[in-house]
Amino acid sequence: MSQAKLDAVPPVDIDSDGKFKYVLIEVHTNDGKSKYIVRGYGWAGFHADVYERVAPGIEALGLDCECQGGGRILHNSAEKSILVYGYSLGYGKADHSITVKVLKEQFPDYPKITFSDEGY
């Protein structure tokens, strides 16, 4: 049952184009199963805006979640490229290698999904 709840949470929900703030969230069940999800939106003025919008929906499924940090995403759907970089002042820098791994699973036809530890 808990795995079904975890599977019900999409791994990625980001804007289809542009530069925007994102957060890496670890979602976990009460029996120790977990997964990482990526959320990023251009409307968010702060990384906390993203997390505070997403967390209640996850908790409503009976799951717990923790923000593991943030950064920025530059998404170009025409070129099929995503660059992950930067950090969150409030949550710290996400492990961009985890973020890239999750994004590559969601966008297998994108030839270029990379990260940089440079920039804000």
Distance between the termini: 40 Å
Q: What coarse outline follows from CA principal-axis ratios? A: globular
The count of β-strands is 6
Radius of gyration: 14 Å
Percent of residues in beta strands? 35-45%
Helix/strand/pairing class, anyone? alpha/beta
Number of helices: 3
- The SSE string, one letter per element, is HEEEHEEHE
Low-confidence stretches: none
Bin the helical content.
25-40%
Most strands sheet? 6 strands, mixed
Give, in spatial order, the strands making up the sheet with the most strands. 1-3-2-4-5-6
Write down the overall mean pLDDT: 96
Notable traits:
3 helices; 26% helix; 120 residues; alpha/beta; six-stranded mixed β-sheet; single chain
How does this model look, in words?
By secondary structure, the protein is of the alpha/beta class. The chain contains three helices and six strands, in the order αβββαββαβ. The protein has helices at residues 2-7, 47-60, 96-106, and strands spanning 12-14, 18-28, 34-41, 64-76, 81-85, 112-115. Strands 1-3-2-4-5-6 form a six-stranded mixed beta sheet. The chain is globular, with a radius of gyration of 14 Å.
